[in-house]
Design goal:
- The chain is an alpha/beta fold.
- The protein has a single domain, classed as Rossmann fold (3-Layer(aba) Sandwich), CATH 3.40.50.
- Helices cover 37% and strands 24% of the residues.
- The protein has eight helices and ten strands.
- Strands 6-7-8-3-9-10 form a six-stranded mixed beta sheet, sandwiched between helices.
Length: 255
């Protein structure tokens, strides 16, 4: 099986000599189709910079990022807009829902921007809303929803176009432990049931315990890798905590 995403020797430097900062210093890894991969590290380690490079929000200084044989650094104009709109689903810490649109309108917005047939979008919305347990809030505005409901609406928006990969940036960062667990259970279910490929940046060991594999970043380089075998999620969580202790981080959430 070929990787869906290939990251090769990626670097990102900010500033000019002699005051340069290397946020990424030669990152190399692959993401396989259907994988749930976590990226962990302490604040300032480079994990969000890496995600932004993959999302084409910023350009890497060096190296290559290739999705299904296509170099992302070579995309521009219409091709770049299509990549961002159809190939990637975004899930942000602060939801990024439009306050003047209902949950339904927020979720369906990408379908109108990318000309998804109404029959297909309606069916897809129904499926996602039922799975994510947000059917009863589809006609509410974001301010009328709880944080967990808003994040599940955001997850439906990220999934509505069947993206090739979901990029999740601290998706539980604004949630309490109960809602964080529910969101992670739903993301894990999408990964297992729809074979959704998910790349998640998080500092939360509890959220990371839902992943199948975790890459740890420190000072812009890969520090360690963990794979979850047949062990329980609690045991995997304990292994994550040990690595995060070496990095100077951890988790305050509970299983």
């Amino acid at each position: 099986m070929d990787p869906i995403l290939n990251i090769e020797n990626v670097t990102k430097t900010y500033g000019n000599v002699p005051n340069q900062t290397k946020a990424l210093n030669g990152i190399t890894f692959q993401v396989m189709p259907g994988e749930f991969l976590g990226i962990m590290g302490s604040s300032g380690s480079g994990k969000s910079t890496l995600l932004n490079c993959i999302a084409t929000v910023i350009q890497p200084t060096g190296g290559s990022i290739v999705m299904e044989g296509r170099s992302l650094t070579s995309l521009s104009g219409k091709a770049l807009a299509e990549y961002r709109g159809k190939n990637i689903g975004y899930l942000f810490q602060n939801f990024e829902l439009l306050d003047n649109l209902t949950g339904r309108e927020n979720i369906l917005l990408p379908t109108s921007l990318h000309n998804m047939p109404e029959k297909d979008s309606s069916l897809r919305l129904k499926q996602l809303a039922e799975y994510l347990e947000i059917t009863d809030v589809l006609d509410r505005f974001p301010m009328q929803m709880s944080g967990g409901q808003r994040q599940r609406v955001a997850a439906a928006r990220a999934m509505i176009l069947h993206p090739k990969i979901i990029l999740a940036d601290e998706p539980t960062g604004a949630l309490d432990s109960k809602n964080a667990k529910k969101v992670m259970e739903k993301l894990s279910g999408l990964n297992q049931q729809e074979q959704a490929t998910i790349l998640m940046v998080t500092h939360d060991s509890n959220a990371a315990s839902f992943c199948k594999r975790i890459l740890f970043i420190q000072d812009g380089v890969l520090f360690h890798e963990l794979r979850r075998g047949e062990e329980s999620r609690r045991d995997f969580y304990e292994r994550i905590l040990k690595v995060m202790a070496q990095l100077g981080g951890g988790s305050c959430n509970v299983l």
